[in-house]
Amino acid sequence: MVPWATLALVALNVAIFWHPLRPPGGACLSVQTVWDWGQWHRLFLAPFHHLSACHLLMNMATLFWLGRGMEQVVGSVRTGTVLLLLALLGGLLHLALNATLAVATGQGWYWEHCAVGFSGVLFSLEAMGQPVEPFPVASLAGGVALTTRWLCVLECLLLALLHPRSSITGHVSGILAGLALSASPLQVGSRD
Q: For residues 10 and 79, what is the distance between their CA atoms, to the nearest angstrom?
């Protein structure tokens, strides 16, 4: 089966990287640009813009791997729908999380923090346990099993340590979007 939805999203991301609709600063997602300035279109632009070829390559390789697996299980239409829904939901959660952190900490940085890229959606897919059901990858102290579903949390923290300029709130928002969608009646893991 050809993973049409995944290939289309990879092609769209690559095309926008080479011919951006806006410069990354004009496409990035922040509380300030969306809520203060009313630039809601950034919810749709931010996931498809990337800061560098390396950023794009890492995201698209992961999208191809995860998206293709999901598409084989649920089909192209459902995969495309879920990926776009996760991009939108993750963006909204990113705004809400940053607004909450700005108010709770009194740090304006969270209000102004601007993020781009498809990695939030990728963290969503991992949190959902797609394309396969979560399975144990390690056993921790006290008999707690670390599953593939929760491995994304460790990946998120490691990425924040290795690349401190990456958007940890964007990645955490992706994880929250994936967990929310996997608990919804949408039943992403099964074919109609």
A: 13
SS3 annotation, the chain: CCCHHHHHHHHHHHHHHHCCCCCHHHHCECHHHHHHCCCCCHHHHHHHCCCCHHHHHHHHHHHHHHHHHHHHHHCHHHHHHHHHHHHHHHHHHHHHHHHHHHHHHCCHHHHHCCECCCHHHHHHHHHHCCCCCCCEEEECHHHCEEEHHHHHHHHHHHHHHHCCCCCHHHHHHHHHHHHHHHCCCCCCCCCC
Q: How many CA atoms lie within 13 A of 13 on its CB side?
A: 32
Q: Of 157, 42, 58, which Cα lies nearest the Cα of 91?
A: 42
pLDDT tens digit sequence for 147-181:
666 677 777 777 777 776 778 889 899 999 998 98
Q: State the pairing for strand pair 136-139/145-147.
A: antiparallel
Segments in the chain below pLDDT 70: 130-150, 164, 186-192
Structural domains present in the chain: 4-182 (1.20.1540.10)
Torsion region of 80: left, alpha or beta (phi above 0 gives left; psi -120 to 50 gives alpha): alpha
Structure tokens at 28: 């990035």
